[in-house]
Amino acid sequence: MAKVCAVFGGSRGIGRAVARLLAQKGYRLAIVARNLEMAKAAAGDLGDGHLAFSCDVAKEHDVQSTFEEMEKHLGRVNFLVNAAGVNRDSLLVRTKTEDMISQLHTNLLGSMLTCKAAVKTMIQQQQGSIVNIGSVVGLKGNSGQSVYSASKAGLVGFSRALAKEVARKKIRVNVVAPGFVHTDMTKDLKEEHLKKNIPLQRFGEPIEVAHAVVFLLESPYITGHVLVVDGGLQLVM
């Protein structure tokens, strides 16, 4: 059976690094992002046989249509990586309600909807693997990121519960929780200030997190697990 993986948020950052690794290992990739041109560029970099799709993960109809298109052009999806995410960092009292909703819809509801669509297909195949990209702040919290932390903490609870629901169908669900990684989300952070809390004294790179994602995606006896990739981070400031 062909190894078909949908990478939501695969046009940049950690998602793009995951896609590159999987392409090297012989997977057929569906690169999914809101911006179709960026998704096409990322898919094009992987070589032949990989396709790009546009999708708003917070809209169930979009998600369902995208899965139908992926199955039509690539085959049934048996691997899923949820790397799409947004952040609107601010103290809670200054956070606009629309920014709360945006983060919860993309970071949590979006992953729920893609998992729901994927699991339906995986149950028919009696196999599958899902890795959701969380965050260390979903485990430890962080000042100025209360809503983002909540969305990622919710993703952990959701993933652990889903893992128990679908294990009998030989479907695995795990989470990778990165610390501070060089991506668009962290480009404005004061790196030197934050390094004092990281024993390895540096930010991570997307490819380093990608290796952890692929490890969980392929590990046949690991489910309901949260793998923290944070350089030994001791305290989030």
Automatic annotation (TrEMBL):
Biological process terms in GO annotation: daunorubicin metabolic process; doxorubicin metabolic process; fatty acid biosynthetic process; protein heterotetramerization; protein homotetramerization
Membrane-spanning segments: none
Record keywords: Fatty acid biosynthesis, Fatty acid metabolism, Lipid biosynthesis, Lipid metabolism, Mitochondrion, NAD, NADP, Oxidoreductase
MF terms in GO: 3-oxoacyl-[acyl-carrier-protein] reductase (NADPH) activity; NADPH binding; NADPH dehydrogenase (quinone) activity; quinone binding
Annotated Ketoreductase domain residues: 3-183
InterPro entries reported in the protein's UniProt record: KR_dom, NAD(P)-bd_dom_sf, Sc_DH/Rdtase_CS, SDR_fam
Signal sequence residues: none
Main location: mitochondrion
Enzyme class label: oxidoreductase
Pfam families, per the entry: adh_short_C2
Subcellular location field: Mitochondrion matrix
UniProt cross-references to SUPFAM superfamilies, sorted A to Z: NAD(P)-binding Rossmann-fold domains
EC numbers for this chain: 1.1.1.100, 1.6.5.10
Catalytic activity line of the entry: a quinone + NADPH + H(+) = a quinol + NADP(+); a (3R)-hydroxyacyl-[ACP] + NADP(+) = a 3-oxoacyl-[ACP] + NADPH + H(+)
Known pathway: Lipid metabolism; fatty acid biosynthesis
Cellular-component GO terms for this entry: mitochondrial matrix; oxidoreductase complex
Function (record text): Component of the heterotetramer complex KAR (3-ketoacyl-[acyl carrier protein] reductase or 3-ketoacyl-[ACP] reductase) that forms part of the mitochondrial fatty acid synthase (mtFAS). Beta-subunit of the KAR heterotetramer complex, responsible for the 3-ketoacyl-ACP reductase activity of the mtFAS, reduces 3-oxoacyl-[ACP] to (3R)-hydroxyacyl-[ACP] in a NADPH-dependent manner with no chain length preference, thereby participating in mitochondrial fatty acid biosynthesis.
Subunit (UniProt): Homotetramer (in vitro). Heterotetramer with HSD17B8; contains two molecules each of HSD17B8 and CBR4. Does not form homotetramers when HSD17B8 is coexpressed, only heterotetramers (in vitro).
Family: Belongs to the short-chain dehydrogenases/reductases (SDR) family.
Protein name as catalogued: 3-oxoacyl-[acyl-carrier-protein] reductase
Species classification: Eukaryota, Metazoa, Chordata, Craniata, Vertebrata
Primary gene name: CBR4
